[in-house]
Amino acid sequence: MELTEIAEIEIDTLLDAIRRRYDYDFSNYARSSLKRRINGLLIKEKLEMPYQLIPRILYDEEVFNRFLSELSVTVTEMYRDPEFFRNLVESIFPVLNTYPYFKIWHAGCATGEEAYSLAVLLKEAGLLDRAKIYATDYNNKSIDIAKQGIYSAENVEVSNKGYLKAGGMHRFSDYYTNHYDAIKFNDELRNAITFAYHNLVKDGVFGEMNLIICRNVFIYFDSELQNYVLNLFNESAISKGFLCLGNKETIRFSILKDKFATLSEGNSIYRKKD
Ligand SMILES: C[S@@+](CC[C@H](N)C(=O)[O-])C[C@H]1O[C@@H](n2cnc3c(N)ncnc32)[C@H](O)[C@@H]1O
Questions:
Q1: CA-nearest residue, atom 3 of ligand 1
Q2: Residue 15 and residue 222: Cα distance in Å, rounded?
Q3: Which of 63, 78, 169, 183 is disulfide-compatible with 176, CB 3.0–4.6 A?
């Protein structure tokens, strides 16, 4: 047997140990990126082979937390892909406006920037009062940051540009206060979003959603897990509800593709069929 095949067995054994010990199942994460992350952790832990991680992770929860941080790439930003947000405002907001009350689920929201970006635009469209926004992630550290709504002021220029490109009509600075080198979103926005833990691999549906946004998460999943999660979204969305994935993600090759109409392939915006 080749050494690379043996390393695969080590990785499978490591993932099995993690599933049984911590109830996190990574077996259907895209293998190549999973391997890169495990290698990253091996370097940080000064280890050489995946099997050496098994006792460390089994007996030390902190090492598992470091594994989770390595794996959950929480890279995000305000108005990531501004044209996507513009598309939301122009084509989805008018439909949301026809409902007296509507629900939005941001799955895999990381540290929350995307959810605040949307809340600001809903506020400007006069829709925030009617929106119930849930934003979830399986990384509790990210969720804690999101709940606080405090971000480094370093990126505020980029955020402001994104806000304007997305169709922002006022000043981005109207929505936060400055605290030394940080910004803090206003209470109205923070109170409009419910941040919570939710693991797409094992947790249940969020019922009756008008809009589900799950961007830049599917890239980490293999096709089986993508199909599984799409099914979860299909069950969570109301009839004619919207589904938005990341710009590099599509439902085109999924077994659920016929359940959704494509509104924008470039921005990966779909609408559940009747
Ligand atoms: C690259 S970030 C994307 C953040 C944001 N949606 C965006 O597009 O900027 C990917 C997020 O997916 C989350 N994630 C990965 N697997 C998950 C799972 N099984 N359940 C919930 N969240 C998950 C990670 O913790 C991370 O915060």
A1: 216
A2: 15
A3: 183
